[in-house]
Amino acid sequence: MSETGPTKEISQSAANDKHGDLLSDHSYDGIQEYDNPLPGWWRFLFWASILFAPVYFFYFHNGMKGRSIHDQYNKHMASVFELRFSEIGELKADRETILKYMNDEPKWLAVGKVVYQTNCVSCHGTKGEGSIGPNLTDDHWKNVRKIEDIAKVIEDGAAKGSMPAWKNRLSHPNQIVLTAAYVASMRKEPVGGKAPEGEKIPAWGESTSSPPKQ
Ligand code: HEC
């Protein structure tokens, strides 16, 4: 750890080299190092990101509604749906409406199908054959006696949440009605699957808006 002899000569000639860099004033076992500060732009980014982090955190994650990315996403989705549903307005979750969309509106029934495929297959199967949840294609139902009960079950859930409530998870109330219509339509094509549960109930009935089938 001495600064005499050849080491000192080397370090001094290094100190005076053509870059003119300064040596830091410590020496370990005769080894010295340049004092090369990080570039200004780098230190600026370093401090700026540290200062920015709490501002970002308190703005977006303070619990105020509408500021998080998730809230903004929902807001945009709601306006997309408003535009999309402007043609049909807000649907009522009653018998006539659900039957009408089940039988006569394949374009809108497809919206219900997408909701079903995105959210329901994990518990009810791709074709409604059932797994965790009951089979939705047979004539036996646990919580449903009339077609409009389907919309109620989707909206509020059942069995203390083992069938989740969807009213706050879907972006537009029409999605519940159209999903109910799609669920009702699956009963037209029983696929086997999970054994029947609940009571046997009568058929949904025909659409009031289409002429009786021959
Ligand atoms: C986490 C699993 C799960 C998911 C996801 C789920 N369900 Fe269910 N669902 C259930 C269970 C379990 C029941 C049976 C409740 C009971 O025992 O009363 C049920 C019941 C139902 C019923 C009533 C069936 C009957 O026999 O009365 C309908 C209709 C239904 N679900 C539709 C849906 C729709 C539509 C979705 C998607 C938006 C969905 N479910 C998503 C688990 C689920």
Low-confidence stretches: 1-7, 206-214
The strand count comes to 4
Query: What CATH architecture of the domain at 91-200 would you give?
Result: Orthogonal Bundle
The bound ligands are: heme C
Fraction of residues in β-strands: 5-15%
CATH class of the domain at 91-200: Mainly Alpha
General description of the model:
The chain has 214 residues and is mostly helical. It has a domain at 91-200: Cytochrome Bc1 Complex, Chain D, domain 2. It contains 8 helices and 4 strands, in the order H-E-E-H-H-H-H-H-E-H-H-E. It has helices spanning 6-15, 40-60, 69-85, 95-104, 106-119, 121-124, 147-156, 173-186, and strands at 23-28, 31-34, 140-141, 199-200. It is elongated, with a radius of gyration of 34 Å. Residues 115-116, 119-120, 122-124, 132-134, 136, 141-144, 150, 153-154, 158-159, 162-164, 166, 179, 183, 197-198 line the site of heme C.
Sum up the structure in keywords.
about 210 residues; mainly alpha; Cytochrome Bc1 Complex, Chain D, domain 2; two-stranded antiparallel sheet; 8 helices; 4 strands; about 45% helix; disordered N terminus; binds heme C
Give a quick summary of the entry.
This protein has 214 residues and is mainly alpha-helical. It is 47% helix and 7% strand.
Mind sketching the topology for me?
Blueprint: H1 6-15, E1 23-28, E2 31-34, H2 40-60, H3 69-85, H4 95-104, H5 106-119, H6 121-124, E3 140-141, H7 147-156, H8 173-186, E4 199-200
Antiparallel strand pairs: 1-2, 3-4
The protein binds heme C (HEC).
Heme C binds next to helix 5, helix 6, helix 7 and helix 8.
